[in-house]
Amino acid sequence: QVRARAIGCGHYLPERVVTNEELARRIDTSDEWIRTRTGIRRRHIAAEGEKTSDLAIAAARAALANAGLTASSLDALVVATATPDQTFPSTATRVQYGIGMPNGFAFDIQAVCAGFIYALANANGLILSGQAKRVMVIGAETFSRILDWDDRSTCVLFGDGAGAVILEAAEGTGTAADRAVLATCLHSDGAHNRILYVSGGPSTTGLAGHLRMEGKEVFRHAVVKLAEVAEEVMAKAGVEGGELDWMVPHQANLRIIESTAKKAGLPMSKVVVTVQDHGNTSAASIPLALSTAVADGRIKPGHLLLMEGIGGGLAWGSALLRW
Ligand code: ACO
């Protein structure tokens, strides 16, 4: 049975680090407020002129190096992003060109903070259906470009970055023992558009707009929906919470992460947390956390990972991957 196996990962963070203290010098906030509400201490912000595709290209190159491959061996590339370089062409085609990938096809996926889960599910589907044999899956964002830097309730929460994972077709047994994507679950509900959105776009204002959020409402949905979708994906794969080695959640807020881990029966020692250093990097946050934990040796071959995320739409989802 064909399965999609992860064979490498990588990430990239812009050089510039902005601490809570630095923000507190510019707007009416404090390190204490940001840390106790969210767990965030610092975030990386892209340099002037540094685009989402630049971050994605750096992450993709790191993943290729990690897998010992060249771009010519890829036959598909998916970029999850809500902050594309341009309305079109897709950021993915810019990345395809940037890494020197002459074959195959590339496209973007837009599911905001759930984007990486959506991209992984689609890449898995391409492999299972025989459309592609080796797929680069990237989450990349420059949320700093769509923040209202005078709105203290949102601008302190986000950061920029990119992470990438390469999936490859491999023979498996079809059981949860396979080192592969074991199951994915996707959901969305457009009835909640107004609690998290960007106030612009090509067919409305013609401008990029700014991120707007009703934080408390988003929080309320997140803790319920993430717990449900974590349970759903484990049931789908026939896996118990006790078998998980790591939860690699979307990194929006430490309190949401703690609540989801508790409901899944996982101690925080089994949760990869990077939100303190990266802030919320939307679609990039899961592959950034994954790649960080692979690089520092926490995630090892054969480990069972639960990934989950929720964002604007609302759109949410989960994936089980045996690394
Ligand atoms: N610094 C200081 N004070 C602030 C700040 C700030 N940066 N931001 C807001 N405040 C003030 C508010 O003005 C308010 O003051 P008031 O009581 O005088 O009116 C007070 O702090 C409380 O504000 P709330 O918004 O009620 O604060 P809350 O405790 O709900 O925390 C937060 C806000 C952190 C945004 C929280 O609601 C949250 O984490 N929500 C989830 C949001 C999230 O994670 N979104 C991302 C998920 S989806 C995605 O990833 C795109």
TrEMBL record:
Domain Beta-ketoacyl-[acyl-carrier-protein] synthase III N-terminal: 107-190
Main localisation: cytoplasm
Location of the protein in the cell: Cytoplasm
Catalytic residues of the enzyme: C113, H250, N280
CDD domains: KAS_III
Region (ACP-binding): 251-255
UniProt entry keywords in alphabetical sequence: Acyltransferase, Cytoplasm, Fatty acid biosynthesis, Fatty acid metabolism, Lipid biosynthesis, Lipid metabolism, Multifunctional enzyme, Transferase
Reaction equations catalysed: malonyl-[ACP] + acetyl-CoA + H(+) = 3-oxobutanoyl-[ACP] + CO2 + CoA
Broad EC category: transferase
SUPFAM superfamilies hit by this protein: Thiolase-like
All residue ranges annotated as the Beta-ketoacyl-[acyl-carrier-protein] synthase III C-terminal domain in the record: 234-323
This protein's pathway: Lipid metabolism; fatty acid biosynthesis
Domain of life: Bacteria
Annotated EC: 2.3.1.180
HAMAP family: FabH
Domain remarks: The last Arg residue of the ACP-binding site is essential for the weak association between ACP/AcpP and FabH.
Function: Catalyzes the condensation reaction of fatty acid synthesis by the addition to an acyl acceptor of two carbons from malonyl-ACP. Catalyzes the first condensation reaction which initiates fatty acid synthesis and may therefore play a role in governing the total rate of fatty acid production. Possesses both acetoacetyl-ACP synthase and acetyl transacylase activities. Its substrate specificity determines the biosynthesis of branched-chain and/or straight-chain of fatty acids.
Quaternary organization: Homodimer.
Family in the record: Belongs to the thiolase-like superfamily. FabH family.
Record protein name field: Beta-ketoacyl-[acyl-carrier-protein] synthase III
Species this chain originates from: Paralimibaculum aggregatum
Lineage: Bacteria, Pseudomonadati, Pseudomonadota, Alphaproteobacteria, Rhodobacterales
